[in-house]
Amino acid sequence: xxxxxxxxxxxxxxxxxxxxxxxxxxxxxxxxxxxxxxxxxxxxxxxxxxxxxxxxxxxxxxxxxxxxxxxxxxxxxxxxxxxxxxxxxxxxxxxxxxxxxxxxxxxxxxxxxxxxxxxxxxxxxxxxxxxxxxxxxxxxxxxxxxxxxxxxxxxxxxxxxxxxxxxxxxxxxxxxxxxxxxxxxxxxxxxxxxxxxxxxxxxxxxxxxxxxxxxxxxxxxxxxxxxxxxxxxxxxxxxxxxxxxxxxxxxxxxxxxxxxxxxxxxxxxxxxxxxxxxxxxxxxxxxxxxxxxxxxxxxxxxxxxxxxxxxxxxxxxxxxxxxxxxxxxxxxxxxxxxxxxxxxxxxxxxxxxxxxxxxxxxxxxxxxxxxxxxxxxxxxxxxxxxxxxxxxxxxxxxxxxxxxxxxxxxxxxxxxxxxxxxxxxxxxxx
Amino acid sequence: xxxxxxxxxxxxxxxxxxxxxxxxxxxxxxxxxxxxxxxxxxxxxxxxxxxxxxxxxxxxxxxxxxxxxxxxxxxxxxxxxxxxxxxxxxxxxxxxxxxxxxxxxxxxxxxxxxxxxxxxxxxxxxxxxxxxxxxxxxxxxxxxxxxxxxxxxxxxxxxxxxxxxxxxxxxxxxxxxxxxxxxxxxxxxxxxxxxxxxxxxxxxxxxxxxxxxxxxxxxxxxxxxxxxxxxxxxxxxxxxxxxxxxxxxxxxxxxxxxxxxxxxxxxxxxxxxxxxxxxxxxxxxxxxxxxxxxxxxxxxxxxxxxxxxxxxxxxxxxxxxxxxxxxxxxxxxxxxxxxxxxxxxxxxxxxxxxxxxxxxxxxxxxxxxxxxxxxxxxxxxxxxxxxxxxxxxxxxxxxxxxxxxxxxxxxxxxxxxxxxxxxxxxxxxxxxxxxxxxxxxxxxxxxxxxxxxxxxxxxxxxxxxxxxxxxxxxxxxxxx
Lengths: 430, 480
Hints:
The complex is a heterodimer of chains A (430) and B (480).
Chain A: H1 3-12, H2 16-19, H3 33-38, H4 45-56, H5 66-71, H6 78-82, H7 89-103, H8 108-121, H9 125-139, H10 142-147, H11 153-160, E1 172-176, E2 184-188, H12 194-197, H13 199-211, E3 214-218, H14 227-232, H15 235-250, E4 256-259, H16 262-269, H17 271-274, H18 282-291, E5 292-294, H19 295-299, E6 313-317, H20 321-324, H21 331-339, E7 343-345, H22 361-364, H23 366-383, E8 387-390, H24 393-405, E9 411-414, H25 415-421
Parallel strand pairs in A: 2-3, 2-4, 4-5, 6-7, 6-8, 8-9
Antiparallel strand pairs in A: 1-3
Helix pairs in contact in A: 13-25, 23-24
Chain B: H1 2-14, E1 19-20, H2 23-26, E2 42-44, H3 49-62, E3 66-69, E4 86-89, E5 96-100, E6 105-108, H4 114-121, E7 126-127, H5 140-146, H6 153-156, E8 163-169, E9 175-179, H7 190-194, E10 203-210, E11 212-213, E12 217-225, H8 228-240, E13 247-252, H9 253-262, E14 273-281, H10 283-299, E15 304-308, H11 311-322, H12 324-327, E16 334-337, E17 340-341, H13 347-361, E18 365-370, E19 375-376, E20 378-382, H14 389-406, H15 425-428, H16 431-444
Parallel strand pairs in B: 2-4, 3-4
Antiparallel strand pairs in B: 1-2, 5-6, 6-10, 7-11, 8-9, 8-10, 12-14, 12-15, 13-14, 13-18, 16-20, 17-19, 18-20
Helix pairs in contact in B: 1-3, 8-10, 13-14
């Protein structure tokens, strides 16, 4: 490697101040899903940090031995939540992924696929909608039911795909207005996958907010939050998308930016770090991040009045990693669930352990993803719940696929859907 | 090629995927929670006693040292690989084989995480008492090897008081049971000899451990003192009064700062020291003891008392203490944790001496420790990347240990001797003492291949890393 390239890699890599916070005490081990599955230090946060340090100190490069350990990381950040030294593991891993992306762009196919995803799809909502329509068409064709039966990897991918529902959710220029007094003006992130795969969930979120006195804006200028880019090592792409979202929401003049997807919320709360060296956007990014609220976090601040519409529903709650670990939000969703009349909340075992969805992980690390999903499905079934609730589209898609495979009738719902259902009427826009 | 043959032999025993031998991967097995480092030839992950036995037997035939490893959270370098050794990681053997609630015992595998045992027997109203601060990660096997303690050992004793019997693999691969499932078997207390032997006598493959009933009521108190001297006096006063709290933990100004910087648990930032005191038992007893403890602390100058009886509030008071070591990472990239014991009446004097060592060496020292049983944990903060700092830090640690021994204390309370403190053993023991210990070890492990280079002085001291020269057979050198 030339010294210039080395320098470039170093610049992308984790900051020393972050890296050397780790005192290798090992308290993170038991929180790490991949360590728990393998029992291997190399698949643990402490082991990965040791390898990052070794790279930093020039003891090893990103060899074909080292890279897979970094790639098996789910970036669930469960370790970060239990770390007594406050090691910002998520940031360390993002920087490491960026380094790897630079040093080992991978096969041409992989590079091409990621480039298409990161640069030509995610930042372009219209293309995403078109792709969504195509996918919907495909899923309603006889071809799809055939393709699902293909043994092996290809069939498995088909199985994991979410069934695209009929209506897409779309940002729009006009606000959704409450009938009575306006208590708050909020922006809502539409996102990339959610409006296509879970349009009805987005509509439920709007109805819920409007019913509770919010004027909801879904600015059309917004794009995907950039989380997938960031986790995949495309930091530059993510920064560009962050800037566009900051402009879109801050220009809309809202008091809070509500996010119904834990992964997006966590990334958006960290825009301030992502853009901390961007003189122009630094301050706006700080403000933006301050305003971002997970939908559960925001709803608990409102005096929700829920009508008594349901009886005897057993519900279990699955913590989304980026809600529980990255945003440290565990109580608010549970509190909201308990407030729904007739809902009995039963905790599952290890509710905050990753379900294996983790963004593109299902596709990139199918085996580990599957293992974690099966564990999660087992835990859900053990509770005897009718519904499993989560706060992140990735987890919902993963659990739907897992429960479908297990032949289970348990419904998977987003928190806002269940809340919205409690009001009875849940069709169309308010 | 010898190495290749060895790896193949190991792979045949445990399966191909369960042998790590690539140098890049071995980087993640060089360390534990301490400051030492060492690289093994291979790390193997057996899944059964038989596999452990086969691996050990193979190593014995080839004359290769073996080093057992649990979660690698140890603080004295007990699991650090000797150069050229095979490291046996027991993380795949983590089942609870049996819970006998009526007899209050459990049979567990060595790789089981300490806290997982307590969590899984909680529905039966039981728990496993020894609770090292790393209990969320450390393993029962490692606890047995190091005779680990924890905050609550003040009342309930350390690991050795909770182990009834052990299945161990000896250096030639033979599998033996020592001890008795129901206490009171005749003959020598071999379990007593084995617990705390730091992996140098054999490898634990099953442990029968005692479980205790959960106390009806628990109260956690935090006493805030303007000065550490007052807190030390309060410790002596409480114990002297005849009360026996389950835990009495002290944190000084610097460790409070670390915890607050890293985690913000709401510890009082301007305090000179805090004491965390816990009492348990039946409800009446607990409220009475808690009241007495409060009165005694106030009498010694406590400026504020916080109390909690509800589980989550208690956990919050404890969280800072349990995470204190890791939190030091917020102040410096490395710490060297000294584990010395002093008579409780000498706490004040030795803590002052620690302060002098800090001033003299120029390294900040945070104190977070088990005050109730005089088990000090001065943590010397430093940055190992600074040239020459590590040896100076180790020397400062030596000063502190000397001070402990001078007032009638000991070298280690619960972390073991390992690599870290072997050079200091002559401070406490004569050659005849050490010879006697070595003879005991030889009775279990005559060849010296079982976790060599630990505990006994001689060979390169800690910080220098291991050289093959230190891996000598027992008869070649005095101390191995």
